[in-house]
């Protein structure tokens, strides 16, 4: 295939999902007429899928499909929080069952990206600034609330984020504060039903009764928990602010400010996009440092084309820490690339099409699927 020939694309995803639709639109706009969608439900039920060597294979999120979620978690209610450990094991098995093709997502990387304990340890070893954590790399196990209380005390962390080791989209996350007089407050999207079940809710709520907080933690602990120090963040318009940066082919291409009146800045939980220009101006000379840290974090996953990096700007703007690295962190509709970057004017999906096409053609010429510098020699 010559460098001018549009590649053949395969998207492993949920065909009805807007992620798949937006990526398909981007690939078609770039001139690719041959785009095949392989459904996650078929991969899970049929034991995998096969691809030819001239197909570029992109994995997309298996989320937002109740049937696929049921196959992965074994739970019939999509809003239930439990089952993330089963999801992790079955998702990795499904990814490993994909055979052939020119792959943009590495299974070994996915195993780390979807385990916050392993991801934290890999970032820390690479010198990426991260919040301190007693559970990094699985160093300490968390069997329930008693362990969380003990680790908070031993690590001198009165404010802590407790996260599902294999969670995403803030599922099961609790931001816990403890005072010297023993009072507690947990901010979370987890709702306890009258039957005692845990469900994800679009409404962030606060629990102050230790019995309720302990109930949530004890129920989630069997799926695996990760603890991180709560870093006080900067604010914009009186709202807590952090940053999602998309890194494609080793380069920081897109950034969005997320603001919230709660510690959880996820946009689906009431968070709102902030003003990036004002954020950059406030960061000043430290803005370049923030982007460099994101690229450093992405470099820990060199066989994966695109990740979304969540960055915590500490009060004072002099420190940035990486809170999360997301395998499917590119869903940012209507957002175009940073004007000084290689994807200026492009959305996140078009940027990946361009970078992946360049990577594929170079690999065909050299036999090496090098990721870094993925935009080199490609016409935008």
Account of the protein in words:
The two termini are 19 Å apart. This protein is α+β, with helices and mostly antiparallel strands and 380 residues long. The strands form three sheets. Strands 10, 11, 12, 13, 14 and 15 form a six-stranded antiparallel sheet that branches. A five-stranded antiparallel sheet has the order 8-7-6-5-9. Strands 2-1-3-4 form a four-stranded parallel sheet. Strand 11 (239-248) and strand 12 (251-260) form a beta hairpin. The protein has helices at residues 18-29, 40-46, 66-73, 84-96, 107-113, 116-125, 145-154, 210-220, 276-283, 287-298, 348-366; strands spanning 8-13, 35-39, 49-59, 98-103, 159-164, 174-178, 184-192, 198-207, 225-229, 235-236, 239-248, 251-260, 272-273, 306-313, 320-326. The model has no long low-confidence stretch (mean pLDDT 93).
Rg over CA atoms, rounded to whole Å, is 21 Å
Provide the low-confidence segments as ranges. Answer: none
Identify the overall geometry: globular
Instruction: Count helical runs.
Output: 11
Q: What structural category characterises the helix and strand content?
A: alpha+beta
Reported for the largest beta sheet, the result is: 6 strands, antiparallel
> Total number of β-strand segments?
15
Mean pLDDT: 93
Could you spell the SSE succession in H and E letters? EHEHEHHEHHHEEEEHEEEEEHHEEH
Strand content: 25-35%
What is the distance, rounded to the nearest whole angstrom, between the alpha carbons of the first and last residues? 19 Å
How much helicity do the residues have? 25-40%
């Amino acid at each position: 295939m010559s460098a001018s020939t549009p590649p053949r694309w395969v998207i492993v995803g949920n065909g009805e999902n807007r992620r798949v639709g937006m990526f398909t639109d981007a690939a078609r706009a770039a001139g690719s007429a041959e785009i095949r969608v392989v459904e996650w439900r078929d991969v899970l039920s049929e034991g995998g899928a096969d691809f030819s060597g001239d197909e570029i294979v992109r994995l997309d999120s298996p989320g937002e499909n109740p049937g696929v979620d049921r196959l992965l978690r074994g739970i019939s209610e999509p809003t239930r929080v439990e089952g993330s450990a089963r999801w992790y094991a079955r998702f990795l098995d499904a990814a490993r069952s994909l055979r052939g093709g020119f792959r943009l997502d590495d299974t070994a990387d996915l195993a780390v990206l979807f385990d916050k304990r392993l991801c934290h340890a890999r970032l820390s070893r690479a010198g990426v600034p991260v919040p301190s954590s007693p559970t990094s790399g699985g160093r300490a196990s968390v069997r329930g609330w008693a362990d969380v209380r003990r680790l908070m005390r031993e690590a001198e962390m009165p404010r802590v984020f407790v996260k599902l080791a294999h969670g995403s989209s803030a599922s099961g996350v609790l931001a816990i504060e403890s005072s010297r007089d023993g009072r507690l407050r947990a901010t979370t999207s987890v709702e306890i039903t009258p039957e005692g079940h845990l469900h994800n809710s679009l409404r962030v709520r606060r629990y102050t009764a230790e019995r309720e907080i302990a109930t949530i933690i004890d129920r989630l602990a069997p799926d695996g928990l990760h603890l991180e120090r709560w870093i006080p963040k900067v604010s914009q318009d009186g709202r807590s602010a952090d940053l999602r940066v998309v890194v494609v082919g080793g380069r920081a291409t897109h950034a969005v400010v997320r603001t919230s009146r709660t510690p959880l800045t996820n946009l689906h939980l009431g968070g709102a996009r902030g003003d990036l220009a004002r954020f950059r101006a406030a960061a000043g000379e430290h803005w370049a440092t923030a982007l460099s840290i994101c690229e450093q974090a992405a470099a820990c996953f060199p066989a994966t084309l695109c990740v979304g990096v969540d960055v915590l700007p500490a009060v004072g703007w002099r420190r940035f820490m990486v809170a999360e690295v997301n395998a499917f962190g590119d869903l940012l509709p209507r957002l175009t690339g940073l004007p000084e970057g290689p994807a200026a004017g492009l959305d996140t999906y078009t940027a990946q099409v361009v970078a992946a096409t360049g990577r594929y053609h170079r690999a065909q010429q050299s036999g090496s699927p090098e990721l870094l510098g993925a935009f080199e020699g490609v016409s935008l």
